[in-house]
Amino acid sequence: MAHGSTRPTSRDVAQAAGVSQAAVSLVLGDxxxxxxxxxxxxxxxxxxxxxxxxxxxxxxxxxxGRTRTVLLVVPALTTEFFAGVYTGAARIAxxxxxxxxxxxxxxxxxxxxxxxxxxxxxLDGIIASSMAADALTALRGDxxxxxxxxxxxxxxxxxxxxxLDIADGVRQVAGHLLGLxxxxxxxxxxxxxxxxxxxRARELAARVGAVPGTSLLTVRAPIxxxxxxTAAETALSAKGPxxxxxxxxxxxxxxxxxxxxxxxGLRIPDDISVTGLDDLALATAIDPELTxxxxxxxxxxxxxxxxxxxxxxxxxxxxGDIPVELVVRGSTAPPSVP
Amino acid sequence: MAHGSTRPTSRDVAQAAGVSQAAVSLVLGDxxxxxxxxxxxxxxxxxxxxxxxxxxxxxxxxxxGRTRTVLLVVPALTTEFFAGVYTGAARIAxxxxxxxxxxxxxxxxxxxxxxxxxxxxxLDGIIASSMAADALTALRGDxxxxxxxxxxxxxxxxxxxxxLDIADGVRQVAGHLLGLxxxxxxxxxxxxxxxxxxxRARELAARVGAVPGTSLLTVRAPIxxxxxxTAAETALSAKGPxxxxxxxxxxxxxxxxxxxxxxxGLRIPDDISVTGLDDLALATAIDPELTxxxxxxxxxxxxxxxxxxxxxxxxxxxxGDIPVELVVRGSTAPPSVP
DNA sequence: CCGCCGAAGTTTTACGTATAACGTCTCCCG
DNA sequence: CGGGAGACGTTATACGTAAAACTTCGGCGG
Lengths: 338, 338
Fold this sequence. Notes:
Two copies of one chain form a homodimer. The first copy, chain A, is α/β, with parallel strands linked by helices. In chain A, 42% of the residues lie in helices and 15% in strands. Chain A has 13 helices and eleven strands. Chain A has helices spanning 10-17, 21-28, 38-51, 57-64, 81-95, 115-119, 133-139, 166-180, 195-209, 225-237, 251-263, 281-285, 297-313, and strands at residues 69-74, 99-104, 125-129, 146-149, 160-162, 184-190, 215-221, 245-248, 273-275, 292-294, 325-327. The first copy, chain A, has a five-stranded parallel β-sheet with strand order 2-1-3-4-5, with helices on both faces. In chain A, helix 1 (10-17) packs across helix 3 and helix 5 (81-95) crosses helix 13 (297-313). Chain A is elongated. The interface between A and B is large, with 69 and 69 residues. Chain A binds a DNA duplex through residues 9-11, 19-26, 29, 31-32, 34-37, 40, 55-56, 58-65.
């Protein structure tokens, strides 16, 4: 470190104010009622301001044995969804004097560095999306309080879970399409092993299976526009009667489906309906605008952080899934009757 | 903290291995050649593994006076661009034993908490996007090594800068459109006071102004699809000859322009050409695919981190703007000759 | 007038680590 | 055979903070 002048410490402030280091700590830590006079306290604060004093966090953390920092583990930040989650979590954290460090699970970042080395910070707790499964294995073994987002409530032993009511969203989508008269459905599924996607498949099968005379074909694709386009194009080109609607596991897949449909010379929603899930900016950028399920990412983050704070306090986090909302736009219509 | 069993310290490891704490530190810190025997070193490592020892980072940071952690300050994470920057920066950081903490400048996160309180971590340096101007004011006053991304090389006193060659990108876009024969251009500009956008405006004016018989109208819009649509629609509905091409400051604005064009019953690129800048996923999701300028976000992040490492080492970061590339897709064509 | 209490501080200690400074013991060379 | 040079450790210390334990002093009730 070429740092010439070292930063002022609480001892420097003490000297400047003519008091002991302990007094500085008391005043700045707001624990001085009945211990330090009003006048002295003001003098200390003035000295601190004067010197531009900032407490050394490493020292404080060492002393207190906690950091008031939590880690938010998310899959590679490829959409704005997790930006929303972060925003919500950070808001609640800030209100409680906590900081949030983001740990996007590495993808080509390097040889699987563990989150702790990477975040360097010592942590009080972790909020992790179930989609960042690879990072989770590295997390196991440490006994930090953990909150899982969108994870199997049964499977995540011990850890509290906070979930979006994806199942309800899928039911709404399926109900919407079935109500319009669609009977041949294509499920464009994310090629990711994660609970949140399993729920989609399960719920869809249940809801559609309950209606006689329906068919449901599932095709898997990586979550990218190009990957989804390829998968959808192949599925739509297959022999036999064509599906009249495509239900996509998320909006990005839906964007790929749009391209597939267009390539085949078909039109949305006239020839085929498409639905997404997320309600990203993408959903209103494409034409026609996408019928999708709106997820409140910020609320998701808020609830996640609240759950973690509860765990840290020894309280039980309050449960209840976060409601989602079907947003009907121009990409769905009754099937054309040939 | 309800933490029942406290984590093992280096002293615990020492006791288990039958050596002193200092020996543990030497071995685990890989400074033991000629100080500790091969056998003892192995014994220490085994004990550490056995106990699941992890060094207390707060203590280490306090001792060393540095954290090997840098802060990456970015504007609200609303696109995948900064996710790429992070990935690149984190890769280089990891190769050098550094960690990167993300600080998305708060937007509704709370009462302007300063980055240091929020990131809690003590920092060795900062990489900041010029777009996160609000957070920067909070950073001033601290003498941390600073690297600015996409910032005025002249204006950012002292701080090293790493820039994309946006000016060249704009020249390429303008050249492309002028080459196709366009003469009436609309510049859909971002309503953000930031150097990177000023460069676009300046360079565009220079390049277009050099060609006789051209007109260039500038309209500002917030960086959102809906905001851009409104602004573009208003501009296109104005009296007088209509522009034949819209040059957008980024891809999101371009998506808004698409919607405006479509609302007016016009077609891209037949009636009007549109260009973007960024090459986000969005660019290939919309129809027709967007002619835009590809920015290598990861390389940007890598170069930023390399520059910061250089500063930390007392070396001079090597300069040179990062090249960008025009990607011609379906949204541009020669103007229709009425 | 004694003893106690509260105000206003100070002294001291511990947090866990990295490393400088300090012992041994053995070997080898002159 | 004296002593210097490794090899192999250990002891001691500092980093900056928070807080428990201690000191001092004036006032006041009994």
